[in-house]
Amino acid sequence: MKKILVTGGAGYIGSHAVVELAQAGYEPIIVDDFSNSKQSVLAGLRDILGHDVPCHDIDCGDADALRGVLKQEGTVAGVIHFAAFKAVGESVQKPLAYFHNNLGSLITLLTVMKEQGIENLVFSSSCTVYGVPDQLPVTEATPTKPASSPYGRTKQMCEDIIHDTAAAPEAGLRAILLRYFNPIGAHPSAKIGELPLGVPNNLVPFITQTAAGLREKLTVFGDDYDTPDGTNVRDYIYVEDLAKAHVVAVRRLLEKKASEAVETFNVGTGHGNTVLEVVKTFEAASGQKLNYSIGPRRAGDVPAIYADATKAAEVLGFKTETSLHDALASAWKWQQALGEAKA
Ligand code: WQD
């Protein structure tokens, strides 16, 4: 089986990608420093897959540690790079930590990949590179705009680093950049899911924790935007669908079907939902009445963004398959499993 190194593979999206890679016949190898994940994720992966997934607890920015893993694991056919700090608000408070970690880990990875002759990279990028778009839905050709946070700027810079590295003479790098929209939900088994450490920044874990009684109420950050009901619009993609997009990208690179050294794809559902639509859909999916109130806008929020998902459909043959309702139902099932685990 072809080995695929998954940096950040014990994280939310990374762990779901590990499942899909293994079930597609690849051998995922996790490297993760567990700064934003727990060892319990490995047990969840074992429950789902029926076997342990090799995991190395290292700093992905430590070149010698990465070299050591590759020496131990032998030939790796490709890499999916998830490892990064990703909280928009936190990045405003700690810009240097974000630039150091997010840029440093990518530069280290690319350096070691070049040394080891590993040519294939799938990079976890983000719709935050579009900033506040002038038109909707956004396509891959939509000009990137100055991001609204240091986090978003690290994603823009990482994309540029990958383009310049792939364009260098004898680069030997072929990359696919996947621009995520809003990943939500959990594996159907409820053995893995989103594990926000502390108070959740993101909407859906805050909703499920409120419904579970762990939070008193949800605050909807503003209802005076120019949107159908005044609340922000986002493209909420089920995490399992997003994970499957990574397998498609890995396969495309390993089969050398990419048409250029660096390809970029939006990975979203192709339609937007408002915050209040998410709340109502969650109530229908969970049978739980949600306690929420309207509060002030959150600094840095983009009023509306959702994907034009045509390119992934036409070039990758990838389309999302899961409704917002079912994705939210999986998030609720996972939240309940977490509660039982603590009980
Ligand atoms: C969604 C909507 C909030 C919490 C995220 C990631 C970012 C990137 C894109 C990966 C917004 C509203 C939220 C709450 C609320 N993903 N909200 N009350 O900001 O779109 O960005 O997805 O790269 O890294 O952070 O996601 O879930 O924080 O917010 O009203 O308590 O929910 O205003 O409109 P966001 P989010």
Automatic annotation (TrEMBL):
<comment type="similarity">
    <text>Belongs to the NAD(P)-dependent epimerase/dehydratase family.</text>
</comment>
<dbReference type="InterPro" id="IPR005886">
    <property type="entry name" value="UDP_G4E"/>
</dbReference>
<dbReference type="Pfam" id="PF01370">
    <property type="entry name" value="Epimerase"/>
</dbReference>
<keyword id="KW-0413">Isomerase</keyword>
<comment type="pathway">
    <text>Carbohydrate metabolism; galactose metabolism.</text>
</comment>
<keyword id="KW-0119">Carbohydrate metabolism</keyword>
<dbReference type="GO" id="GO:0006012">
    <property type="term" value="P:galactose metabolic process"/>
</dbReference>
<dbReference type="GO" id="GO:0005829">
    <property type="term" value="C:cytosol"/>
</dbReference>
<keyword id="KW-0299">Galactose metabolism</keyword>
<protein>
    <recommendedName>
        <fullName>UDP-glucose 4-epimerase</fullName>
        <ecNumber>5.1.3.2</ecNumber>
    </recommendedName>
</protein>
<dbReference type="InterPro" id="IPR001509">
    <property type="entry name" value="Epimerase_deHydtase"/>
</dbReference>
<feature type="domain" description="NAD-dependent epimerase/dehydratase">
    <location>
        <begin position="4"/>
        <end position="268"/>
    </location>
</feature>
<keyword id="KW-0520">NAD</keyword>
<dbReference type="InterPro" id="IPR036291">
    <property type="entry name" value="NAD(P)-bd_dom_sf"/>
</dbReference>
<comment type="subunit">
    <text>Homodimer.</text>
</comment>
<dbReference type="GO" id="GO:0003978">
    <property type="term" value="F:UDP-glucose 4-epimerase activity"/>
</dbReference>
